[in-house]
Structures are given as C-alpha cells and as structure tokens.
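Input sequence (349 aa), recorded before submission:
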Amino acid sequence: MIARAPEKFKIDPGFPYALRNCVWEITLACSFSCRYCGSKAGKAGEGELTTAECMEVVWQMREIGMRRVNLIGGEIFMRPDWKTVVAALCGAGIKVCVITNGFRLADADLFFLRDVGIESVAVSIDGPEEIHDAWRMKGSFRAAVDSVRRISGAGIPVSVITALRKDNAPALMDFYLSVMKDLPVFAWQIQSCAPMGNAAKSGEAVRYSFRDVIKTVARIAPEAPFDVAIADNIGYATPEERLVRKGGYFGGCSAGLSSAGIDSAGNVTGCESMRDPSFFEGNLREKSLKEIWYSPDSFRYNRQFDEKLLAGKCAGCPEGAYCAGGCRSYNFYTSGNIYESRYCARGEA
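Predicted structure, token format:
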C-alpha cells in the first residue's frame, strides 16, 4: 500500500525546490531484452506497483503539483493496466509523454492515446536498420519507423530518441540523411548510452567523442525540419551549445531540484537513470512522495552542491560552478564520481 503523508505534515513555505517533472517506470516487462538496456528490462519486475497503488501515486503527483510525466518501461504497453494509468494522469491535468520501442503498437492503442489527450509519444530508434536491429531484434527498425508514421497519422505529436554508443555515434549524420529527415516528427533527442544495466554486463563500449557528436548535431540542427537537441548527459559548455541544447546552455543536473524518477517497485530517485540503490531516497510504500521530496535529507548531492566537490578535470574548470559537473548519473557509471564528467566535450574543444 502506498504511504500518505501524516495529516499534520508541514512544508516550509520558503522551500526552494518544486517537483515539476518525473520519469516513471511503470513496468520492466518488455518485448526485447536489449544488450545495452540500462534497466535490464525483459520480465516484469518483482514487487511492481499494483493498479490501486499507481492510482494513489497519481493522486500524490497531482497534490504535489506535478506538471509532466514521462512513462517508460520496459515497454509500458506490456503492462495490462497501462491505459488506466495513462487515463488517470491525463485526467489529473498532468502532461504525459509515453516512450516506446514501437514494436507492437495497435491502432486501437493509438486512438486511445489520442482521445485521452496524450501530449506526445517518443519512439526509440538508434540508427540505420543494420545498427538498430543488431542491438534489438531483426525487424525492430522497420516496426519502429512504421510506428512513427502511424502515430503521426493518428494526430499525436511524435518524437524520436536515439541512444549513442561507440558503434552508432559515427553514423549519426548518415542516420539523419537516410532516415530521420523524412520522418514526421516534431523533435529528435540524442542521448548517450551509459555503461549500466545490460550495457555494463555485456561490456559494451560506450566511449565515443562527445565533441564529434556535438559538431555533427550543430550541422544538422539549423536545417532539420524538426527540433534537434542533445540530452543532459552529453556536453558541456562548447561554442555550439545554443545550437545543440534546446533551451540554451546546460545549467546543471536537475535531479532532486525540479525532477524525480520512480521505478516500477516505487523507489524514488532524483532521476530514473540513477538506478543504483545508493540513490534511492525512499519507497512510496513506506513514505509519501511529499515526505520524500520535502525531506531536508533528500537529494543532498544536488541540493547541497558545492563547487569544491568537483573532481577530475571538472575541478577548477571555469564553467564548473554553472554546469555543476554535468549529469550525475552518467558520471557515476563512467567515472565512479558523480562530480566528475570524464568525457566532457569542453576538454576536446
């Protein structure tokens, strides 16, 4: 059972952090078990939240003032009650983006998403067909591309998310020219695959040049018929920032400051990519979302950040106070130190 805050629970009126965005992993069930999957999805996780518990989480999200939720898996369409969860979120006035592999998406599901008022759907496509299928399964690329077109045809805004690794980063421009530029999407997000989950287990090399990727994206963005942007785990502070990062310059990790992650078992983190148990701030079966978020002991790594904590080449960097060392999760899995961005593109500039 999901916990609720005590009736006399008080919030400091001067509390500076408002929870506005959340990534919610509602199941680990998936049609794939990709070699680089950070969550090691495949089968439903042990102790996943029940339908009733999910409804309570939605209520707590509304109560706390949540504005947007990204629903992820696994593959959310493999959870039997996914429509109930989506409808509840939309009904609560929360904007919802569904992230999918696009492998098996029925027309009836698209019509439901459209009619319930979904904000958008994001489909994962990692490169040209031979690259994409090599890491998922044969036929998955064509299914994903077809889903993008069908989602758009149903009147739902659709975007593409690409996770970069050593093998597909050099193919980024070819992927744009041969596939992406002709897709009916409103946005393309390019992020870096971290060596966690299956990527760590398989020994997959995720090292590639951030600088080369940023230069490529800077060439693509001005001419693309849709928004193109790099995610928070690629950067930082290069001359191309205004071209490659939607919203301008990267101003530091938002985990625990304005965003949070919830896994399928109800564990709360600052970001759903922070999958190591050391980042768990509490479980929703034991504490309410409000109790976890407003606790003075939560998310200390960001709420009590000091420039002196920066390590490696981030220490002493003139941009350190502003970017705060980059993405905490990616840093953890690549350098072992959340305050060291070992592959920061600034050092390659």
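Checked by second reader. The longest strand covers residues 158-164.
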